[in-house]
Amino acid sequence: MTKTARVYGGSLYDLAAEEKLDGQIMEQMIAIRQIFRENPGYLKLLGEPAIPEDERLKMIEEAFGGQAERYLVNFLKLLCERKILREFAGCCEEFIRRYNSAHGIAEAVVTSAVKLSETQMEALKAKLEKLSGKKVYLVQKTDASVLGGLRVELEGVQLDGTVQSRISGISKKLNELVV
To answer: What is the pLDDT of residue 147?
Structure first.
């Protein structure tokens, strides 16, 4: 994430929190970020210097004006005017980071060989919440190289309960005994 994204995303969060719209704006930012990801040509079009700025701003207003919070629409227009709309995803990351920090939410990424069931996810979430003392938002990833077990990253700490990790640990201990 760039310094620009941190500054702009943080500033939008400060305004949203002051107006008590942080949750609503965060949901809308995530939806707009997804729209931009699914339609990269649209984002490129909004940054095209050959199209007059007022036309690009009008496109933003037409696309989001009736659905998104006014502060967010104006934020998109500001990024467009400053020719930094490509930073929107980073602004979104910073906004979410600040929101989570302010609301005692920790994001955890769980990696497993196969998709976990809802029951397994809930049990893991409860255990992580107890461990961290925070509300945990789980993001699930699958990786076939994880033969069994789970790898969890929570607030920069990696908890590795994979079979591969356990085998490596045993191998290391055996090597220490041999030497």
So the answer is: 77
Distance CA 45, CA 133 (A): 44
Residues facing 135 on adjacent strands? 105
Confidence of residue 102 (pLDDT cuts 50, 70, 90): very high
Residue by residue, what is the 3-state secondary structure of 57-110? HHHHHHHHCCCCCHHHHHHHHHHHHCCCHHHHHHHHHHHHHHHHHHCCEEEEEE
Residue 7, Ramachandran bin (φ over 0: left; ψ between -120 and 50: alpha; else beta)? alpha
Strand order in the sheet with 135-142: 135-142, 105-112, 149-154, 157-162
The pLDDT > 90 percentage for the chain reads: 69
29: helix, strand or coil: helix
Residue matched to tokens 């397994």? 120
Quote the CA–CA distance of 164 and 67 in Å, as a whole number: 48
Q: pLDDT category, 58, cuts 50, 70, 90?
A: very high
> What's residue 51's pLDDT?
94
Q: How far apart are CA 43 and CA 126, in angstroms?
A: 39
